Amino acid sequence: FTPQPHVQPETKKRKGGSKEDSTTAKKKKSASDPVTLNAPAKYVEILHLKEGMLMLACVKEVADFDVVMSLPCGLLGFLQIKNISDGYTKLLSEQLRSQGTEEISSLDRVFRPGMLVRCVVLKLDITKGGALSIKLSINPKLLNKALRPGTLRPGMTLSGCVESVEDHGYLVDIGVGETKAFLPRQVLRAGQTITCRVDEVKGSGRVVRLSVNPLALARTFADASHDWSLTSLQPGLLVKAKVKTVTKHGLLLSFLSFSGQVDFLHMEPEEESTYTVGQEVQACVLYIEPVTRLVALSLRRHLLAPGSLVDLAPAGGDRIGEVVDGCRVTSMHNMSGALLELPDQTRAFVHKNHLKETAQTSALDKLLSLPELSCRILNFSAMEQVHFASLRKVLSGGPHSSLSVTVLPQGTVSELLDHGMMVQLSGNLKGLVPKTHLSDIVLRNPEKKYSAGMKIKCRVLSVEVDKRRVTLTRKKALLTSTLPVVSSYAAARPGLVAHGFVVSIQSFGCIVRFYNEVKGLVPLRELSTEPLASPEEVFYVGQVVKVKVLECEPEKERLLLSFKAVVEGDTAGEGTAAPRVLMEVGQARLVTKSAVCLEVAILPEEVPALLPTMHLSDHVSNCALLWEALEEGDVISNLVCLSRNKESITLTQKPLVRWGLEEGLFVKGFSDLAVGMTLVGWIKKLMPYGVFVEFPCGIMGLAPKSALCDRFVTDTASVYQLGQTVVAMVTTFDEEKQRFLVTLKGSEVTDPEGGAQALLLRGLRERRSAEEVLAGRGSGARQELLELTVGQKLTLAVEEAPEGGGATFKSDELTGVAIAASKPHVLGVTLTPGQKVTAVVLQVDLLSARVHVSVLPKLLAKKKSVSVFCRCVRRTALCLRAPECA
């Protein structure tokens, strides 16, 4: 769903209207003023976009020559391969000219779906259909054009592109002329786009040293010392801001020396009513309008973690095209739209153009008084993590998800293209008839048979709901076929005879495709009863053929087919391929790593696979430490295969999940579920109304807020963390809607192997092992930190003790280590710079080389007995198993 250009309807002023309404109406009369909300916060639309505008975007789809970007407020933009960077363009040109075997740096090696990217609006074009197309660029020279060598400061975060590989690292193009940017050795590729942090500036900005540590980036905020200006301010920057104004439509914030706005879609839903004037918040710069000089900010958590991947689909599954009854309007924003609450308590946004029919002029405020509404889900906006919906009846045509290969829809020819024909199926639903499917034979002049406006009947060949793509056929043999439809590999049983069409002719045989991209091979020996030397002389691409399935391997997506067996009438027995076992324990070698995922090669066959960072441990706090301890070439043990598809294999190292698989506490499909079944999974997504729990094989269930723990929960984020391993029990399931509920209450689920205490001890041993590896590979400071223990007493010198705050210390024995005590741990103790004090160690952070201490007399007293300590450990273990104890 891409919002289309539209004409703003006239709005008559109501009698007795409020002063706010009157002011808004006056503003709308001015042609020079952009369309804004009737409150400070502003909602961006296509009409507000200007060339040169900087925006934060999310990678939605990666094709061969362009990338589809999800922009704020449901907009879509397109990044062409030539607009990435000068270095990437040069690299591609060199690879294409060379005769070597070096692998081409394709876009899918540079971009990953869900990746956050800083971009600039390069051009606004009108498509043939009249829609506005947004062309983007991420070239550092355009993104950072306002920066000069003298304006670069340590601590800045910038976008760049890996320009070349050097002996000890990389040269990075950050788009600042006369500046050489160096990145010490990482696991990167030439041409790769990165978000990096400036660690050091030399020679008046002519040489800078960069880093890409995701943990450091997540803790880096824009600072007044960076001297950001409104023209150099970058989308994606993290800032600390203060609330100046609160309205029902959003917030007005102040940060650095600027003012910024947060619209209602970029506040956390469960915190909307909690914001107060003067409150300090962490925000992310969303976009900067160059004309109005507006800075838009976001408070959404998924945008405040640089390096993480944004979910491109809701946790409850794809619902695009679904008609939802029983919705209600929760808030009206007259200049932008309305927020709906769906029956399952999820939110949906309805743009003002989709609140009513085009010709309808009734007051939109009446929608608030309606007890129930029906809406159709149009899209899911990754940037806002909210569905976009419509109340218009004109969009009652069938959605993509309602189409299947058994449907023969009636359509209208809308356009003839070089590669096929576009057919309008319903209000907002179009399909493509490829050129080879316009007829049973290939038409040289399709315009002689088809013309715009002609009514035709088609058959659906494939539906790609995530890409909103429908492929159709006009081949009569397929339209009238009475043979079984092969729409999945599981449906292709040996012995089955079906119609398909030839898509490729090779020296070893023909490739035949069925429906939903299912395809198989007819080897040379099965093409005919007579030997064929040249298959291309007998068959042609697009030809409809009748084939028989000889062998089928659904898990490998392989089919062996025969033309000969159909002619001979062979009736070989039917059968099904045995399903492969899900669990495969083994080792893998680390190939490369990013903030959210490790790319590994399963040994000994070197099969590529993915190991998500959150799957390194059952304990979320250990994952970052284990990630940092691993290096390229390391062998990772105790891995289990979670799921596999034709694109990738996903592994896990979570001991509890591995135990669940070994004990059979998993299901391979929805049909295997039963009430009372115990499953081991992990937290996939936190929502105001509960948490979504993912299980092996990609199955996902919802734990409502009432079933999270044995005490009342107000905020799900205070109880669970993303990636946390949990034991769940199935309570209810809906077979028709393919949805089920689980409980995580400690009183209702079975304890894992060894109980909570064993889980805690395993986590502590895991953490200690990772710390030892990290210290061995790191600096001397880390080795010194490893020798420290919680409860150990240190003699320190006070470095700073600001009034009303905490204190920092220094030690001759711990060099390069930051030692600090927070305000509660210096309360009532008088400290002066240079004073010698005794402090007790509270926590040692090996990653940041930081020690947290306390100088409170009660903590410096004699340690408690062993029995008391054991009770504390037991209590901590229970807290890990049952969050309600927290």
From TrEMBL:
Please verify whether the record's keywords include Repeat: yes
- Where does the signal sequence lie? none
Q: Which GO terms describe its cellular component?
A: small-subunit processome
- Which key words tag this protein in UniProt? Nucleus, Repeat
Q: Does the keyword Transmembrane helix apply?
A: no
Q: What Pfam families does the record tag this protein with?
A: S1, S1_RRP5
Q: What is its main location?
A: nucleus
What terms describe the molecular function in GO for this protein?
RNA binding
Q: What is this protein called?
A: Programmed cell death 11
Organism of origin: Gadus morhua
List every stretch annotated Disordered.
1-33
**Per its UniProt entry, which superkingdom is the organism in?**
Eukaryota
Provide one Gene Ontology biological process annotation: rRNA processing
Which compartments does it reside in? Nucleus
- Domain S1 motif positions: 52-139, 236-300, 321-392, 406-475, 495-564, 676-745
